[in-house]
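Let us practice reading a record.
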Amino acid sequence: MFEYLAIGVEAGYFITGGKIPGDLELNEFKTIIIPYEGHLKFSFLPLGKINPYVVLGGGGFSWNYTVNDSTERYEATGELKKGYDSFFKSGGGVEIALSKNHNFYFDLGATFRYSLTDMLDDIHSEIENHKNPLNDGMFDIHGGFTYYFRASSRGDRDNDGVPDELDLKIDIKEDPDGYMDHDGKPDDIPPVSFATTSVQADTMETDTQPPVVIHSPIRRVEANQMISIKADIYENRRLKTAAIVYRPVGLGGWKVGQLKNRSGSLYEGIIPGRYVKKQGLEYCVIAIDEAVSGVGYCGLPKLPVRVEVIPNSKMWRIISGTAALIGWGGSGFLMLKKQD
């Protein structure tokens, strides 16, 4: 539905069974279970590399109980040997992003299903006269890979993260290589073999090459979240300044922040969270050398990097935490409780 909430449906086919407890004849029981279910999935950090999530749901299932593949035991007693019941489901897990665009994940999780029947195994309160009968539950651990097919966002025909109003090639995807990735069209990466991070001695040769900025644009963030901007900046002589200019979408004035050199060609700066509003954010990374031979950039005021801002993140984390408390707390109680 959106980043913090998803709806899922499942269907399956299960067989459970084993030796009948206390049966000296070593008879075996088998129960065939055919469930179908729906659930809500609440995500804590959907834009992060690691995303914990909670699942709550339920459904119905049909079941068929047999002993040694026959129903003779229940034909004699007249008791149920098959039926239809409901169940509740809770669970959770963690998704680990394996791709930069967060479409491909490794998923590891667990679920607990508590049925509204006591007829799935061979310990029945109706037969054994339990003082504290419990319905049957099933616990599973699962792992696998997930790929999300994300539909094109509104106003982005080629689904490359650049809005059509800023996209110079609305039918051709941007090539995400870090060079000029703000304009929505593929660009060849320029040679940077001339670049050096050391200060070279002054020469009579004129500097005619502008700095080269390599930066992977930020496309989606949570509202009020501080954004760290990183860029590799290459200059063959001396770099005069490197900066970020930014503003919330729709506001006229640009704010300016400095990019500081961290190591080698790496520069880093911060966009404060107070400027990351729900209407969106736009920014540019700009570098100028001392010879003023040109401007290196990723984004310009008339063609900036546009960032989609996701609102209400704190509210949805509270909702997810409440779902975890209800689901995991109830499941833990039922799994630890023993049938007398």
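A brief commentary: Residues 190-303 form a domain with the Immunoglobulin-like fold (CATH 2.60.40).
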